[in-house]
Amino acid sequence: MSDPLSRVGRSTLSRRRALGLTAGLGLAAAVSPSLASAGPAAAVSPYPKGQRPRMLNVFDENSLSLPERTLATTLQGLMARLGGESIYLNLPTLGYQYWLDDLVSRYGVGVRTGDLWKTVWRSGVRGYVLFRTGTPSVNVATTLAGVTGAVAIEESLEALAIRNGLRKVLDVRDKDDRWVFETYWPRLRHDVAVEQRADIPERLRDYVTMAGTLAFFDGNSEFRAEVVDALDDDATVIGWGDASRGEDAFIGVNSAAGVKALPADHARNLSVLSGIHEDRLEQRGGGGGRALEPEPDAHYVSFLITDGDNIQWALGDFPTDPRWFGSPRRGEVELGWGISPSLIDLAPSVMRWFYDQSVKDRWVVGPSGGGYMYPSRYPSAALDKHTASLATAMGRADLSVAQIIDFDAFDNTRLWSSYLKHPEIDGLIYLEYSRYDGLKGRVVWSEGKPVIAARTMLWSGLDGADEASVTAELNNATRNPYSTAGYSVVVWHAWSKTVDNVLSVVDGLAPHVKVVPPDTLVRMVGKYAKP
Q1: Residue pLDDT, tens place only, 162-194
Q2: Which first-to-last residue range defines the signal peptide (predicted)?
Q3: What span, in angstroms and rounded, lies between the C-alpha atoms of 513 and 509?
Q4: Can you tell me the distance from the alpha carbon of 281 to that of 355, in angstroms, rounded to the nearest whole number?
């Protein structure tokens, strides 16, 4: 196979220059993602961002065939480098309709019904990378679309692509992720990579192409470890790995290499959503998360959902499903929700929407900060880099508390100092990997700030984690807000419990048990329950 880029000497080709190569393919190829992210928040963004869209060609995702979705999303990524006109894949029953409506009403973005091949022609893209369904070549083609400025075309669409004026740049049908890694790694970003299965034709592929990243998936193999090890300190793997033997099988490998994960393998439209810039956002609900003057004979409790680091969920059915933020009963009590601080860059309009919809709701950072990792396994230099970036994002997003998931690390206050030395972070909520409530509400202190272990949890099928048991434990807990024993964090399992389950516990609480948001509880512990 002829590779038009192989004639450029790899040893002398800088990443920035490589991402700007046009290979005669049209205007979209001429803009480097590193340059396209210039804007008000670019100086503080740790993630590549698209340019702000002015007009979106909207497609119902289900109206496109699987090969058309790959074409559409790789084109979307290229167009997002320039801003102006782009593509939006909508799923009207999920949050994507909310985000589209918000782009129109708040940010003045225009919309029209999409016509795929007319959009291809207007884009100026004139080349394609050929791949075959059912093989790793879809990841190869997605990656090389970002390098070459060509779209990814599945072989069943090749004749149609040619009729619409596209010419073949590369044929990668016999290539795999290792080949593209070994051949093109110097020309790809080293601060972000995307882990995506080959059987998912569209999700995240727009962001791969826009950002100029590597797309890969190889289970929990030696090759995967090699990719992760080649990334920068505190780089991000966006997507999800092979969790068939537990998520720690790959999150542990990431952590040892000083790399975090953002669960996002089903996320759409990040290239478009990242094109919005919000330098700072402010939470509106829950009394501002301020410390309350405690009642002397009370016990204070916060209810906090698990899995707040999950970007695909936040973008998808989390805002619409009645189990979660879409519950008609949300607002009856002050609840704690987790959110990824990466949204301030990757989807700031989405974060703003959640804040605007929150009356009694308060938000904290999901595990374990800027992304999912185990702090005790992170190299110390990478951890300091991580927490510095996290503190900046938390300040911009009005977040003051972060959840942590780790293994037997609770008493290692040196780890927590890396977080809590930053003034933006008031405290941490610690979840032991198994069980989350294994430390039964213990508190340790670092930098004069609390690290609070979950006291109990709501989780179907686990002993003591049912509604009746949690209600009884809270009603019998210590009634002294000047002691750390006077406070409880209850984590409720997102996938087996709902807002209704939480409210059934709240309805059974004795009058002396007071429900407060988690950031309020952390501030009260820090102010009134000093060691």
Answers
A1: 999 999 999 999 999 999 999 999 999 999 999
A2: 1-36
A3: 6
A4: 8
Q: 40-45: long-range contacts (C-beta < 8 A, 24 or more apart)? A: 40/277, 40/279, 41/277, 41/278, 41/279, 41/344, 41/345, 41/348, 41/396, 42/277, 44/392, 44/396, 45/345
Domains and CATH numbers, the chain: 53-274 (no CATH), 299-529 (3.20.20.490)
pLDDT tens track for 294-330: 999 999 999 999 999 999 999 999 999 999 999 999 9
How many beta carbons lie within 10 A of that of residue 177, not counting itself? 22
Terminal alpha carbon distance of the chain: 68
Question: What is the C-alpha to C-alpha distance for residues 23 and 39, in angstroms, rounded to an integer?
Answer: 27
pLDDT of 337 above 60: yes
Residue for token pair 């700007």: 20
Integer Cα distance of 7 and 3 in angstroms:
8
Task: Give just the sign of the alpha carbon dihedral 32, 33, 36, 38.
Answer: negative
CB neighbour list of residue 417: distance below 8 Å, 6 or more residues apart: 446, 447
Q: Which residues pair with 301 in a beta bridge?
A: 488, 515
**pLDDT value for 43:** 43
At 520, which helix (H) or strand (E)?
A: helix 518-528
Q: Could you give the CA distance from residue 219 to residue 198 in angstroms, rounded to a whole number?
A: 11
The pair of three-digit structure tokens given for residue 346, joined into one six-digit string: 């990757």
- CA distances (Å), 422 to each of 290, 294, 387, 391, 413, in order? 19, 26, 8, 6, 14
* Least confident among 76-80, 320-324, 347-351, 527-531: 527-531
CA-based nearest residue to 494, from 455, 458, 453: 458
pLDDT at residue 48, as a whole number: 97
Q: Is residue 53 helix, strand or coil? A: strand
pTM above 0.85, yes or no: yes
Pair 20, 30: CB distance under 8 Å: yes
